[in-house]
Amino acid sequence: MTNNAQAMYQLNLNQISHLLKVTGHKRTTLVQGHMGTGKSSLLRMLSGELPTHTPCYFDCTTKDLGDITLPRIAEAGADAAFVSYATNEELGAHINTPIILMIDEYGKANPAVKNALLRLMLERKIGSYELHPDSIVFATTNLGSEGVGDLLPPHARNRITVVTARKPDNMEWIEWGINNGVDHSLLGWVKDNPQLFHSFEDVQNPDDNPYIFHPRAQRAAFVTPRSLEAASDILKLREYMDDQTVTGALMGTIGDRAAMDLMAFVKLADDLPSFDSIKDNPETAQVPKSAAAICMVVYRTLATIEADWVDAWMIYLDKMDKEAQGLFANGVRAPRYRAQSAVMTNKRFTSWARANGYLFAADV
């Protein structure tokens, strides 16, 4: 079981990104967390906020000591020479402007590689190179309790700050998925199955959650945020494959149980109204009968809506129950929702929001 204090102070990726932005030029933070939960995306997040910094990615799992620095002979005079060392360009030490250096999978590195990087992580120096003072350095690794070889010796641990990235819950991942083109039927399934995002640390018996990774179970494939995104890529191309092929591919991506449960849910997509029927005839377009299908229609709309058909959607939305209306409104109000401006400036939406303000009472 997770230590209560550690569990309480686990951070989401937005919090970690901000921590790295504020402190990363002074101290190196090691971000540890569950596999497939987006730790590597921190480099992209920071790059977006710091466009003057050059992003540098260093994968420790592919490196040996000779991949860090290489000796070269330099002439000091007619009768003298000395050895200097050229660094791997992936470390970015040769760049004279600020960089963001991500040292990925540090816990899995060869012990010699771990030691070779310690001075860079502590002092921002390696060989005869010194990073620009505004450079940000951070590292990532998996949880040691996952049993995938992530080990950190005490002398290395004492030179850095270690924070734990928490897994997102299903609604947080749905918010991300809406903004990143995840298949709407997958989003609907995720909404109905919050256990997909539970931690193995809180599940003593692996059989209690057959979907997720558990170190006590031999599961070749399982659900993580990363594997769900891969499942979405398969589902978005399902029209070109038969159901057996799609199911087999999903089994090899998210596991047997998850794949079969997801495919049962996907069949509900046949009950969805077409985009054209909603855009052209919102008053008469079919409203699905099942709650799951209604949820998929809402998520599909959130992912694709544009300013030119918000009016039609609001007419159609008025035929749905208040729960579905609230689901759409809360999706629009999410801080990073891509079409927020297009929807919130629409007169039909603002009129609906004024008339249904009670739906947001919990957020006041």
Write a concise keyword list for the protein shown above.
364 residues, alpha/beta, 2 domains, five-stranded parallel β-sheet, 16 helices, 41% helix
Could you please describe the fold and organization of this structure?
The protein is of the alpha/beta class and 364 residues long. It has 2 domains: 4-165, 3-Layer(aba) Sandwich (Rossmann fold); 170-363, no CATH class. It is built from 16 helices and 9 strands. It has helices spanning 4-8, 13-23, 41-49, 111-123, 154-157, 170-179, 184-192, 225-235, 243-254, 256-266, 275-280, 291-304, 310-317, 322-332, 340-344, 347-355; strands at 29-33, 54-59, 69-77, 80-87, 99-104, 125-126, 129-130, 136-142, 161-165. The strands form 3 sheets. A 5-stranded parallel beta sheet has the order 2-5-8-1-9, with helices on one face. A two-stranded antiparallel ribbon has the order 3-4. Helix 8 (225-235) runs antiparallel to helix 9 and helix 13 runs parallel beside helix 16.
| Proportion of strand residues | 5-15%
Spans of at least 5 consecutive residues whose pLDDT stays below 50 are none
Strand elements, count = 9
Mean pLDDT: 90
Could you say how many structural domains there are in total?
2
Q: What is the percent of helical residues?
A: 40-55%
Q: Could you state the order of secondary-structure elements as H and E?
A: HHEHEEEEHEEEHEHHHHHHHHHHH
Summarize the biggest pleated sheet.
Answer: 5 strands, parallel
What does the radius of gyration come to?
25 Å
Number of helices: 16
What distance separates the N and C termini? 35 Å
* Spatial sequence of strands, sheet with the most strands: 2-5-8-1-9
Helix/strand-derived category reads alpha/beta
Inertia-based shape: elongated
